[in-house]
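## tool: complex_structure
## caller: assistant
## args:
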Amino acid sequence: MIKLEHVSKTYEAGVQALKDVSLHIMPGEFVFIVGDSGSGKSTLIKLLLKELSPTSGKITVNGKDLSRISHRHIPDYRRKIGCVFQNFRLLQDRNVYENVAFAMRVIEAGKRQIKKQVPYMLSLVGLASKYRSLPRHLSGGEQQRVAIARALVNKPKILLADEPTGNLDGHNAWEIMKLLDQINKAGTTVVVVTHNMEIVRAMNKRVITIRKGSVVDDQKGDADAI
Amino acid sequence: MRFSSFQYNLRQGLKNIWRNKMFSMASVATMTACIFLFGLFYSISVNFSGMVKNAERGVAITVYFDDKATQDEIDQIGTAIMKRKEVAKCNFVSAEEAWKRFQSDYFKGHSDAAESFADDNPLADMANYEIYLKDVSKQARLVSYIEGLAGVREVHQSATTARTLTDFNALVRYISLGIIFVLIAVAAFLISNTVSVGISVRKEEIAIMKLIGARDAFVRAPFVVEGILIGLIGSIIPLMILAIVYNNIIHYVAERFDALKSMFSFVSAGNIFHVLIPVSLLLGVGIGYAGSRITLKRHLDV
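## result:
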C-alpha cells in the first residue's frame, strides 16, 4: 500500500530531513510514526501527500509511483488519501456540516450524494447533533472529530494523521485514538505521526521510529490491543 | 464542471466580493470610470468622425479639360473617375452652369455687372467635373491619377483642408486610444489587487482544498468569477450613466444651440449604444477575467 525505497529529502537550504528511508506499510495496517521534533516525520507526511518530491528514492502508494504522477493528476491521487492535522484546519466561517460537505464539493460530488454522505459521517464521529455549530463553539476533541469526518467523507483508502492529538487533553486524545482505531478496523489504512508516547504504548500498534531523518526502529504491535 | 459546482463557485465568488467590500467597491468604481471614459471618448470620436465625414463631403476636387477636348474624351474622363473606389460623387458642371454659379455667388444684387457680359461666357473653358470623396485622406492619390488622364488640363484640390481634417481625426483617435489603454491598465491592476487580497484572506481554505484533491480549475473558479463580476458590474453602471447623459446632452445642445444644429447632427443614441454596449461588456468582462487570471498565476501555485 505504502512503500518507501531508499528515500532521501534534502531542502534547498541544505537541511537533510530524511536519509535513505525504506519502509513498507501493508493495506489495513495501523502504524505510528514517532520521533522528536525535526526528526523528519512531517516531511514524510508531505512526501506522501505529494506536497514535496524526494531528492532521491522511490515512493509507491496504492501501487502508483508518485514520481510518475503529473501535476494535473495530483488531485486524483489526493482524493484517495484523507489527512488530519494537529491544528484541525477547519474553515472557521462555516459550520460543522459545511466543513465536511466542503471536502465533497471540492471533488465536485453531486448535491444528493453530499446530503446522504455528510450526515452519515457526522453520526459516525458522534457529531450528528452539532451539525449547525461553528468550529469555535466546539471543544478541541470535537473539532478534531469534524476534521476526521472531513478526511473520511470521500472514502479514502489511507488516512494520514499529523499529530492529531497534539492540541488535545488526555481524555480527548484517547477518544480520538479510539475513533482512528475504529476507522482502521473498518478497513482504512491509518498512519499516525505523533510524539505522544503514552498513547503509542497504550495502543500497542506497529511503531516506526525516526531519528535525525533515518528509521532507527520498526516494532510490530498487537493489532487487537484496544 | 457540474451545475452544482458552478453554483457553488458563483456563490463563493459573490462571497469574495462581499468579504472584501472596500477593495471590490474600489475596483468597481475604477472599472466604472474606465468604461465611462471609454464610452465618452467613443461617443465623441464617433460624433467627430461623423462631423469630419460631413465636412469631407464638402471638400471637392475640380477637374478642368484641355481646350481641344471633345465631349467623348470628357465622358471617358468621367467614366474613369467614377470607377475609382474612393469617389463618392462626380458631377459634370458645364461652362454655362459654372458661369451661372459664379454670377449667383459674386454678382448678387449687381445684376448690371453680370449683364455687361451679355452672351459672352468668360468661363467658356471652365467646364469641369466636381468630385466628392468618400475618404478625404485618399485625395492626393486620386489627384495624381486624374492628372495622368488624357484630356485633363488642370486639377484643383483643397489639400490643406483635406490634410487638416485627416490629421485632426487621427489625433482624436490616437488620444482616445492612449487614454483608454492607460485606463484599462489601471482597471486590470485594481482587479488584480482585489483578487490578491481575496487570495490572501482565503489562503488556508485554498491550502485545504488542494490537500483534499481540488482540481486547479475548481480552486481558481471563485476568483475568476469575482473578477468577471466586478468587470460586469463596472461596465453596466457606466453604460446606464452614459445612456442618460448622452440623450440629455443631445437634447440640451439641440435646444440651446440652434446654430450648431445646422452645422452638424449628432449620431443617434441607438447607433452609439448598438456598438458601445457589447464592446463595453466584453471589455469589462475581459479585463476582469484577465486581471484575475494573471493574479492567480502569480499568487497561486495551481
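## assistant note: Chain A has two domains: 1-80+156-226, 90-155. Chain A touches chain B at residues 49, 51, 72, 75-79, 82-83, 89, 91, 102-103, 105-108, 110-111, 150-151, 154 (CB under 8 Å). Handing back to user.
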